[in-house]
Amino acid sequence: MSAPNIDTIVSLAKRRGFVFPSSDIYGGLGSAWDYGPLGVELSNNIKQSWWRWLVYERDDIEGIDSSIILNRLVWKYSGHEATFHDPLVDCRECKTRMRADKIEGKCANCGSTNLTEPRNFNMMFRTVLGAAAEEDDPTALAYLRPETAQGIFINFLNVQTTLRRKIPFGIAQIGKSFRNEITPGNFILRTREFEQMEMEYFVKPDAEHLKLVDEWVELYLEWFKSLGISGDNLQLHEVPADELAHYSKRTVDIMYRYFPERPEQERQWEELMGIAYRTDFDLRSHSNKPVDDEGKRVNPDSTEDLSYFDETTKQRFYPHVIEPAAGVNRTVLAVLMDAYSEKTNDKGETRVILRLSPQLAPIKAAILPLAKNKPEIVGMAKAIKRSLQPVLRAVYDDTGGIGKLYARQDEIGTPMCVTVDHQSLEDEAVTVRDRDTWEQERVKVAELADYLQRRLKATSPVQPVAGTSSLEI
Ligand code: ATP
Predict the structure, then answer these.
(1) Cβ within 8 Å of residue 352, ≥6 positions away
(2) In terms of CB atoms within 10 Å, which of 215, 286, 336, 451 comes out highest?
(3) Which of 158, 24, 39 is nearest to 412 (CA)?
(4) Are 455 and 440 in contact (CB under 8 A)?
(5) Measured in whole angstroms, how far is the alpha carbon of residue 472 from the centre of its chain?
(6) For 186-230, how does the pLDDT look when each residue is reduced to its tens digit (9 = 90+)?
(7) Shortest-distance Cα residue to atom 28 of ligand 1
(8) For a substitution probing ligand 1, which of 173, 176, 194 has the most ligand atoms within 8 Å of its CB?
(9) CB-based contacts of 211: which residues, under 8 Å, 6+ apart?
(10) pTM for the full predicted model
(11) Coil/strand/helix, residue 413
(12) Quick one: three-class SS letters along 140-208?
């Protein structure tokens, strides 16, 4: 079972401290959300899993963290100033403004087909740099990045030369991106400020690109499944040629079923991530060497040539790039939707259980005293919490009866609850309760840390084996 719709997750997320509507005390700010104490843990765990999987477990990927505000010329030569726009239409009947490519010719609000002609709207957020700059001073104009990728391309040579990398190799980055979306909405699915996990994988121009895109699609499907997302809720979408971004020769999107309540074929699916073959477009256009038909430099502003010299073939070329670009927020939402389940207890009450993969659970173990008015029990429970903390994320909670405490932990996805009772004072043992089965086991306090770690590992989905590319490139 997964969540019946996004609204179920919105209310759970707000009720239990995963995600709050931003600026709520001032009436909110359309489609902006803040991660609460549990949301920030979940999102950090997803980012750490991604980083471990690509940067640590593979031997061919380095990480970086580039600036959000870059020289404006980066966006000129990347093509974003000229082409990073969405088609915008207005409904003449109800005045709603929408993205033309998301509505199939009908107003999403009133259903009217009386729409204006689509016109392009550039989605980059503008700002001005410098204390003395006027709002409209073009020399002070800068943008908040709409993708993290360009920070990778402009650092290609820095990374390649300092780390002595030979292609194929990749550069990974996690960070905020900003897009002035025409119609943000659906909770954290589409916001103006969001986080991306992007990787640029540099290969020879004659590599088998088509296969490489498929290879990365497969690896990512496995990674999403390792986060607990069911394969039934994932689907591939080959982006048609006329919808490709200006830099892309081929793009495959991995879609998630964010709208299971809609009838099939009616936009149940939305993009979770995209895997694009970006050719040598970016490295070439940021380089100072390429010339046009008349022999004029295409980029007279760059001071570098971002080409690569292959020692074995003695050839110089601009590497081609495969780019898997995933959204942190959309992954958080997919993980929450997929983990959502309900279970009925002995008394016929329905309980929400968030079956998060243990590696992603914000809290791994909750330490609960059976009687909060017994100082010895409370003292022992708090001491156990402190002793576990260096090993795994644990919390202490005594703000309710044990039934209520269990239910709360189930609802936020805590895999284990540890209960300290009267007997514990005698036998130095505690009860460990499993979130999914509600089964209980008695464990010696001295063995608790090892026991919990073993259990958490055993229930973690198997991590996909990620090595270097299997292709001859
Ligand atoms: P869409 O077609 O949904 O607008 P896109 O194709 O423009 O998305 P990309 O440029 O491929 O998106 O960005 C890579 C990833 O970044 C997306 O797959 C998504 O996970 C995430 N992303 C993009 N825009 C947003 C947004 N406005 N809010 C949240 N995540 C986003």
Answers:
(1) 12, 340, 341, 342, 410, 411
(2) 336
(3) 39
(4) no
(5) 30
(6) 999 999 999 999 999 999 998 788 889 999 999 999 999 999 999
(7) 190
(8) 194
(9) 471
(10) 0.93
(11) coil
(12) HEEEECCCCHHHHHCCHHHHHHHCCCCCCEEEEEEEEEECCCCCCECHHHECCEEEEEEEEEEECCCCC
pLDDT in tens, 19-34: 999 999 999 998 899 9
186 token code pair: 């659906």
- List Cα–Cα distances, 64 to 72, 155, 174, 287, in angstroms: 20, 9, 8, 21
List residues bridging with 141 in a β-sheet. Answer: 128
**How far is Cα 230 from Cα 215, in angstroms, rounded to an integer?**
19
* pLDDT tens digits along 46-102: 999 999 999 999 999 999 999 999 999 999 999 999 998 888 999 999 999 888 888
For residues 469 and 418, what is the distance between their CA atoms, to the nearest angstrom? 43
Res 326 pLDDT > 80: yes
Report the pocket of ligand 1 as residue ranges, CB < 6 Å: 147, 179, 181, 190-191, 194, 196, 271-274, 325-327, 329-330
H or E element in which residue 323 lies: strand 320-327
Length of the chain: 473
